[in-house]
Structures are given as C-alpha cells and as structure tokens.
Write a structure and sequence with these properties.
By secondary structure, this protein is α/β, with parallel strands linked by helices. It contains 17 helices and 14 strands. Strand 3, helix 5 and strand 4 form a beta-alpha-beta unit. Bound molecules: ligand F0G.
Length: 449
C-alpha cells in the first residue's frame, strides 16, 4: 500500500473551537500581536511547538497508574533509568522537570566565565543558560545550512573545520564541552549524520574535551539517518539511536519531544565526579535525584515513551506527515527550509516577504497573518527570538506528536496557500514594549502601515 496512515486510532478527543475573523482581530490587538499571549482556547490549530503537546498512548496512561510517588528510591525512577540506559548506555541518569533544567545544571557545573561552548546551533534556552553561566555560546552550522533552499541531506551537521579553528583560536582549556543538537531545531529541524557525530567526537576526544548531545529529537534524527545515510538501511531506529549516543560523554534531553511526555527531561553523564556535583545542584532547585522535580507517574510516561518513539511505523508516519505539509506548500512556491525537517516546517519569511525588512520582523508578520486568516498558531524563529544572532527570518510550523490528522494538515496547507497568494499585502511590525529577558514570549508589537 502506498498510503501512509496514522499508526494509531483515537478514542479520547478534545473539541476544537472556531472563531470569527473579527474575534481574531480583537484577540491579536489585545495580545499586542504576540501569539504567545493569545489564550489557547482561541486557537484552532496550534503549531506553536511540538514540545509537551503530544498525545500519550494507552500504554503510557496505564504505566502512569503504576507511578511510585516515594520521595526517595521510587521504583518509577529505576524503570526510567533502565529505559534510558538501554538506549544511551550512560552511567548516570538525572531526571529534571524539563530540558532547560538539565541545561542549567550542566552548564553551571561545567562552564566558567570567559569560556566558549560550540554547538551546531544552540536552542534559545541552551544559549541563555550558557550565557547565564558567564560563558559564550557559539553556533557552527555546516556551510550548506546558510542556503535555506539547498537540498542537502544532513543540513544539521556541524562545520568540523570551523570547530577545529575555534579550538585552535580559543585554546582547549577555554572549551569546557562541545554539543550537537539532534535534530538541529533552530537550524530548520535538520538532521545530523552519524558521520558528523563521529567526526565531532573525534575532534573533541583528540583535545580531551567532553562531547554532549542535546538529544531532544534523537528518534527523528535516527530515522533520517536510516533514510539518507549510506550503510544504515538495515539498521533499526533503535540501533541507530544507540550508535548516536555511543559517541557522546553525556546528553541533555527534553522528554516533551521524543518521549511523548507532557513534561520532563533528564541529564546524563559518564563522569562520576560531575554527576555528584550535578545531583547537589539538582537537590537545591529540582528535587531529590530519584524524582528531579517530576512526579513518579511522569517518570513512567517517559520510560514508556522512549520505547514507543522508536517504532518504525510511528517514525515513518511522523516524517511523512511533516514532509506532506512541506511538499504541498513548497510545490506552490512557498519558500521553506529544504528539505523538510522532522518535527516542523519552516517558512523562509525573509524570502517570502522581501518587502518587509528584518527590522520589521517578517516572520512575526507572517505568524500574525496566518492566525488572522485561519486561526493557526505558529512561531517566529528569527530576529524576535534570537536578536542579532538570527541567521534567517523563519516561521516554524511545529507539529505536535500524534495529535492532528491529515485533514488538519490539509487545512493548514490551504490556509498557507491563501496567505501566500496575498503576501504583498502583509505589513511589518515594530516592538512597542519588551522585557529585558524573553522578548519572544512577552514583547508587544504595533503594526506598521
Ligand atoms: N533543546 C532543544 C533543541 C529544544 O528544542 C528545546 C525546547 C530545549 C532544548 C529545551 O527543552 O523546553 O523541555 O526546557 N524546545 C521547545 C520548542 C520549547 O518549541 O522547540 P525544554
């Protein structure tokens, strides 16, 4: 059969609510044209993020009933630990309430002021936590990533030559760790090849620098390796994922992505001394090391999710569904980051709206236009989010896991094509108020004429 179906059936549903164009205009004005400030009940299709928004399975809900809520030594922790260790091989598994908590603990233990942490592309919380620790976050995407239209199979790769130049220039002692984000979220949800993971590991090891994965979307990355990297056709996603982790000295992980959990994360390391320091910090702000800010039932959901996400039927559907959205809009001329990513499609708003200069936030303008037209919420990944570090003005349509069906995606395609047909009428924005931190979430805008 050629038709790829959702590999699940649905028996608990959540109604969606339509709004009128007049209502949406009012919600936009009240929210200062920042979609983070619109109440979710006024969103028809929510593609703000794939993080914590997935649907859990019957097996996950069943496992949650087994949650052991003991303060110390919870059985749920040991089930999670076994699940993580089977996949990653890491000695220490430290649960946290989500990915950024793992990042904060890792960087506070490993980084000193004046140091530099390279990554293919840092996610915004990763960058902020490194900077908060007094260090510098440097992005080293591969050269192919600069052209959003280039169809390279592994545009998430790190530029290994640039990494070597950075180590040469800074000196090994100023680089406390090297990270790779799989898939590269801020760089268009693009995968990283095993060859690149191995090459980065080799450079790191030759200088004695620890190498970590930001592993949020490890399973989607593994699927792309099976599809696109020579030599892995016969490997299962799990075997590929295990191979990816085998190169790393540790990882940070947000279980809100490729573990189908609504909350949770963890930090892993092979280093006993670091693990002790990390657990001390964990106790200060997250909780005891066998729960790390989560309920026992959350640990159970993650343990099961890590297993389910590697199901080839699920991954085939997941990647095909994202690709479907990307193909149907790009065939009609909408410029997207090519090839389509794993968890999201990114429209290059800079290319689509050349009449809006970047100081007037073209991707924000497109996000507003799409909500206004069809009640769809997306997110700006450009100058609002990253300020001067932004390389492109992207609009991300992130697809929650196992939540929307094909007709929802068809509706999104139709809406984007209608907005695209009227793109010349879209106008930019200026920021009228912004907090010092977190401009993305709280800035308010004014439409320009
Ligand atoms: N690293 C990456 C690559 C991420 O995409 C995220 C979150 C995090 C770390 C932080 O994890 O949210 O559990 O604290 N990304 C979400 C997104 C928020 O919308 O892409 P968290």
């Amino acid at each position: 059969m050629k038709t790829i179906i959702e590999p699940f059936r649905i028996r608990s549903v959540e109604p969606l609510r339509h709004t009128t164009p007049e209502q949406r205009e009012q919600f936009l004005a009240e929210a200062g044209y920042n979609l983070f400030l619109i109440e979710a009940k006024n969103i028809l299709i929510d593609l703000l993020t794939d993080s914590g928004t997935g649907a859990m399975s019957t097996e996950q809900w069943a496992a949650m009933m087994r949650g052991d809520e003991s303060y110390a030594g919870s059985q749920s922790f040991f089930r999670l630990k076994a699940s993580v260790q089977e996949l990653t091989g890491f000695r220490h598994v430290i649960p946290t309430h989500q990915g950024r908590a793992a990042e904060r603990i890792l960087f506070h233990v490993m980084c000193r002021p004046g140091q530099t942490v390279p990554n293919n592309t840092h996610f915004d919380t990763t960058r902020a936590n490194i900077e908060q620790a007094g260090a510098r976050a440097v992005d080293l995407p591969c050269p192919e990533a600069a052209d959003t239209q280039a169809r390279h199979p592994f545009k998430g790769d790190m530029d290994v030559a640039a990494l070597e130049r950075l180590i040469e220039a800074e000196g090994r002692e100023r680089i406390p760790l090297i990270m790779l984000t799989v898939t590269n979220n801020s760089g268009g949800g693009q995968p990283v090849s095993l060859a690149n993971i191995a090459a980065v590991k080799q450079v790191a090891a030759s200088h004695g620098i620890p190498f970590y994965l930001d592993a949020c979307r490890f399973a989607e990355n593994a699927w792309f390796i099976q599809l696109r990297e020579p030599g892995y056709k016969a490997w299962s996603p799990k075997q590929i994922a295990q191979k990816m982790f085998s190169f790393a000295d540790g990882c940070t992980f947000s279980a809100k992505k490729d573990a189908f959990a609504n909350i949770g994360g963890f930090l892993c390391t092979q280093d006993d001394r670091l693990a002790d320091q990390e657990k001390e910090l964990l106790i200060l702000t997250e909780g005891f090391p066998t729960y790390g800010g989560l309920a026992g039932r959350d640990l159970e959901a993650i343990a099961v999710g890590l297993h389910e996400v590697l199901d080839p039927d699920y991954l085939q559907y997941r990647i095909a569904s994202t690709e479907y959205l990307g193909r149907h809009i790009s065939e009609q001329g909408v410029p997207i980051v090519q090839p389509p990513g794993g968890h999201a499609i990114y429209i290059d708003a800079g290319l689509m709206l050349p009449h809006i200069p970047r100081q007037q936030f073209p991707a924000q303008a497109l996000a507003v236009a799409l909500y206004r037209h069809a009640g769809i919420r997306s997110v700006e990944i450009g100058s609002v989010m990253f300020g001067d570090h932004a390389r492109h003005e992207l609009l991300r349509l992130a697809i929650p896991r196992r939540v929307y069906t094909q007709s929802h995606i068809d509706y999104v395609v139709e809406a984007i094509l209608e907005v695209y047909a009227r793109r010349r009428l879209i106008r930019g924005f200026e920021i009228v108020s912004e907090p010092v931190f977190l401009r993305h979430f709280a800035a308010r805008f004014r439409p320009l004429q």
